[in-house]
């Protein structure tokens, strides 16, 4: 499903213009939102994820008015925020199972299939009974993706997921993301050019709340 953002603006109470009249079309597939720290990426991601209000503008996911029909959007959405909390004392299996219940997967056998499947997909099945507090940064991010994939969302938003990962973890994480991006819309925000170059067929660059350029990654990446 394509996402159409029109004239989106957001100014914080302290006067910082985080988003300055952004108009952007995000097609299905993997989309990279590239920009330095402070560019407005997290603000945009939170608005798209229905967790924050904008001042003006519109956002449509297919025919769905994202700013107006928040419940419907949330049912279609998987969101991995930049700094998501994990409960250190519970195991990966327990927490994912718990989120699956919250997502409405009430049937035990079916839930087990889904949770096991996601743990396998994110390469965490072997460590499913370890407490989350023992996880490395890469394992945490992969767990976050498993969580975001619950309910088979059509739109996935991941905010700066590779910040702080070492090169080996980054490669693993790239492989995981490229597997999930096939039949969905996945928006990846990052300040790392290679995240976008390796993974995203389309991209945009924002800085100081403004859209600088958008288009096919292949055509833009040589200029960066
Ligand atoms: P990022 O790493 O994406 O730049 P920030 O460090 O800007 O994130 O923001 C981290 C958190 O602090 C966010 O929840 C953001 O809303 C909040 N925040 C950032 N800047 C300010 C600010 N100037 N005043 C109040 N809250 C802020
Ligand atoms: P990015 O994710 O690209 O780092 P953010 O969306 O976090 O950018 O921040 C954009 C700008 O808005 C930054 O200057 C940041 O300090 C500011 N900002 C973010 N959250 C808040 C907030 N809650 N209150 C005030 N300023 C904020």
TrEMBL record:
TM stretches of this protein:
12-34
* All residue ranges annotated as the ABC transporter domain in the record: 3-224
Keyword Transport assigned to the entry: answer is: yes
What keywords would UniProt list here?
Answer: ATP-binding, Cell membrane, Membrane, Nucleotide-binding, Transmembrane, Transmembrane helix, Transport
Q: Which residues form the signal peptide?
A: none
- Entry GO MF terms: ATP binding; ATP hydrolysis activity
Family the UniProt entry places it in: Belongs to the ABC transporter superfamily.
Report the protein name in the record: ATP-binding cassette domain-containing protein
Origin organism lineage:
Bacteria, Pseudomonadati, Pseudomonadota, Betaproteobacteria, Burkholderiales
> Shown portion of the whole protein?
1 to 224 of 296
